[in-house]
Design brief:
Keywords: Ribonucleoprotein, Ribosomal protein. Belongs to the universal ribosomal protein uS2 family. GO terms for molecular function: structural constituent of ribosome. One of its GO terms (cellular component) is cytosolic small ribosomal subunit. Helices cover 46% and strands 14% of the residues. It has 169 residues and is of the alpha/beta class. The chain folds into two domains: 63 residues, no CATH class; 105 residues, Orthogonal Bundle (Helix Hairpins), CATH 1.10.287.610. It has a three-stranded antiparallel beta sheet, with no helix packed on it. A three-stranded parallel beta sheet has the order 5-4-6. β4, α3 and β5 form a beta-alpha-beta unit. α4 packs across α5. It is elongated and about 65 Å long.
């Protein structure tokens, strides 16, 4: 992993915050100033906070615990998919289903249904069905794959969440 520097954060635009009318007063210590009605974030404080965050993620990964990557925005969806697959972690990059964490028992039954349908498709059970029935089941597989395909290997509640946009997600 490359070292994160002040210059690198500045070049990536990490110092741009929200418009001044959308600010939260609790963020005051982290705001460096205002330019063109946009808050400028203090990158020195950001740099100081990145180290503990990286250490936390490393400690979870070393214990082989699960980190659930969540990012459903169009811009973040593809990156979440690639990075979660790269490190072998579960992800949600389409739509967050209500109760995905608080009602995991129900979500787990949907995961089992998806695995069951995939197994039937692979062993040739679908070839015995009519075209209409096969298409209906294929649509169900596609729907389940889109909504919960990233969490099929999760096997329980995650130990940590990595959320791209906390307000939207």
């Amino acid at each position: 992993m490359s070292d994160i520097t002040l210059k690198g954060l500045l070049q990536s635009g990490a110092h741009f915050g929200h418009q001044t009318k959308y600010w939260n007063p609790k963020m005051q210590p982290y705001i460096f100033g205002v330019r063109n009605n946009v808050h400028i974030i203090n990158l020195e404080l950001t740099l100081d906070s990145i180290g503990p965050a990286i250490n936390f993620v490393k400690s979870i990964a070393q214990k082989n615990n699960k980190i659930l990557f969540v990012g459903t925005k169009r811009t973040a969806s593809k990156i979440i998919l690639e990075e979660a697959n790269r490190c072998g972690m579960p992800y949600v990059n389409e739509r967050w289903l209500g109760g995905m964490l608080t009602n995991y028992k129900t979500i787990r039954s949907s995961v089992r249904r998806l695995e069951e349908l995939k197994l039937k498709k692979e062993d040739g059970t679908f070839s015995k069905l009519t075209k209409k029935e096969g298409l209906k089941i294929q649509r169900e597989i596609d729907r389940l794959q889109k909504s919960i395909g990233g969490i099929t290997e999760m096997g329980g509640l995650p130990d940590a969440l990595f959320v791209v946009d906390v307000k939207r997600e």
